[in-house]
Amino acid sequence: xxxxxxHYADMTADTTGARPGQQIMIxxxxxxxxxxxxxxxxxxxxxxxxxxxxxxxxLQGDDAAAFARLGIRxxxxxxxxxERAKQPNQLPPGIEYVVLDILKDSSQAGAAQLLAxxxxxxxxxxxxxxxxxxxxxxxxxxxxxxxxxxxxxxRQFFSAIAGQEHTPAVFHCMAGKDRTGWAAxxxxxxxxxxxxxxxxxxxxxxxxxLPALQxxxxxxxxxxxxPDLLKPVVGVQKEYLETAIGEMQKRYKTIDGYFSQGLALNxxxxxxxxxxxxxxx
Length: 281
Description:
The structure is a single chain. Helix 5 (132-146) runs parallel beside helix 12 and helix 12 crosses helix 13. The radius of gyration is 18 Å and the shape is globular. The strands form 2 sheets. A 5-stranded mixed beta sheet has the order 1-3-6-4-5, with helices on one face. The protein has a two-stranded antiparallel ribbon with strand order 2-7. By secondary structure, the protein is an alpha/beta fold. It has 14 helices and 7 strands.
């Protein structure tokens, strides 16, 4: 956080005892974790620079103080305008706030549909029943890789975090699992983290988010809905990320191609990302 003179102190996260994917326990910011610690062939992802989370519209009191101690300089909000209007973030003072509407160009925005079905079991059945949830989310993950709004948003995000003035940063969408999940996966793949570990980080959402959303499932049940209908929406499945990676490979062959051709980042920026976000083990 900036000091009285408006400048940022040198803030390095305390990573004593930390492990890759470890949840940061702030109740009103579910699915919050540092991207650091995952190994690459000869280095590891640096702790304390990139954090992923769900939205934090209820951040206040002790939780706000705990969040402030992370030293976050920038917040990248990947939600739609409707999501932001319904649940605006509450931020500690002095944090840069950047909107990146990844699904702005989507006609169906499957990854942003949770709000539309929570209060209407019939709508949920029509949208998600009979295996339609998997198809909906697979299409959404293809769009996360290919939509012009997605490419523009992720380009802005990665361009910014390559510099020094916008990190430590947290990036998030509504639940911190789909648009956020691809941003995290793309980051880790670029840095040389193995596919196994990329999927491990991605699937941690099922452990770290679903308990916080149990009241949502209970409420849905109480109005006559089947909670199993919502599980593909509130959690993640490996097929979702496999679809995104497949779309990336179809269009750009490799993760380097995605960053250089899809996101139009130059070699210098890509090299900065790799150097900044990793360190010797």
